[in-house]
Automatic annotation (TrEMBL):
SUPFAM superfamilies: lambda repressor-like DNA-binding domains (SSF47413). Transmembrane segments: none annotated. This is Scr1 family TA system antitoxin-like transcriptional regulator. Residues 20-74 form the HTH cro/C1-type domain. It comes from Streptomyces bluensis. The lineage of its organism: Bacteria, Bacillati, Actinomycetota, Actinomycetes, Kitasatosporales.
């Protein structure tokens, strides 16, 4: 039987949990492949959990408890691990923050704001201040820097997920920033698109009714786990993993993408709007 090592109580909750999982697995003389067999997850997912880099999904926790005969330990404690805070992000966003780093594709639709992964500092600061009007400047800046830090996943040419963002036309032509800052924000999107880090599409203002009109969603797919959908409101968010509901969102997103402008036309529109802002002009609306 594996010899149990002392676990440092000062470790983060996910690290503590992961080390306990590894000890229990090795005590049972099971490999990662053997423990994960029969679940919907891959061994890399389980390995990341053991290193404290990923949270344990509830269905996987139940599977692990059943295989290891741990009397529900991992199921009982996986919620505490999920809620463990690791930064200034809202608690309900922690699962997304972790998941997007492991995703092979991310597809997002934001009808009212430019997605966080694409935001510049002035844009993020404006949104954070509007949502938290009584926060100190230090608190606001902490949230802004945390949001900007998410975009580091675009920096690695080899592990960058395929990212697709559908944006409403109003986000491009109805500025919430001064013209110079708005040009910088749109240049950020153009730069990522031209580096093949993302694909933008625009929903025209006059396209009529379209799917997901009242929803802001992110769909994430993984090489070693089932897909997730994240929906968000102003002060709450929900992560959805029910296969039937994920499938329904998937179909709705595909229909949404079908009524949007083509990526090439969308990028041309964003470029033109950025140039207009630089020249102190109001971008033209699509008719």
């Amino acid at each position: 039987m594996a010899r149990r090592k002392d676990i440092d109580g000062s470790m983060s909750v996910p690290t503590f949990y992961g080390k306990e999982l590894r000890w229990q697995r090795e005590a049972a003389r099971l490999s990662l492949e053997q423990l994960v067999a029969g679940s919907f997850y891959g061994k890399s997912h389980l390995s990341d959990i053991e290193r404290g880099e990923r949270r344990m999904p509830l269905d996987l926790a139940r599977h692990v408890d059943e295989v290891l005969k741990t009397n529900g330990f991992f199921e009982r404690n996986c919620e505490d691990v999920r809620r463990a805070r690791r930064g200034p992000h809202a608690w309900y966003f922690e699962k997304v923050l972790e998941a997007e780093r492991h995703a092979e594709s991310i597809e997002e639709w934001c009808p009212s704001t430019i997605p966080g992964l694409l935001q510049t500092a002035p844009y993020a600061r404006t949104l954070v201040r509007s949502a938290h009007p009584t926060a100190s400047d230090e608190e606001v800046e902490e949230k802004v820097q945390a949001r900007l830090g998410r975009a580091r996943l675009f920096d690695d040419d080899h592990s960058t997920p395929e990212y697709w963002a559908v944006l409403h036309e109003s986000l491009i032509i109805d500025a919430i920033l001064p013209p110079r800052d708005m040009a910088e924000q749109l240049d950020r999107i153009v730069g990522l698109a031209e580096r093949y880090r993302m694909t933008p599409q625009i929903i025209p203002r006059k396209c009529g009714a379209y799917p997901l009109m009242a929803a802001s969603i992110m769909i994430m797919a993984f090489p070693d786990a089932p897909p997730l959908v994240y929906t968000e409101a102003s002060y709450s968010g929900d992560t959805i993993d029910d296969p039937a509901l994920v499938k329904q969102y998937r179909k709705a997103y595909d229909r949404l993408r079908a009524v949007a402008l083509a990526p090439e036309a969308s990028l041309a529109m964003i470029k033109a709007a950025a140039e207009d802002y630089r020249n102190g002009k109001q971008p033209d609306r699509l008719e």
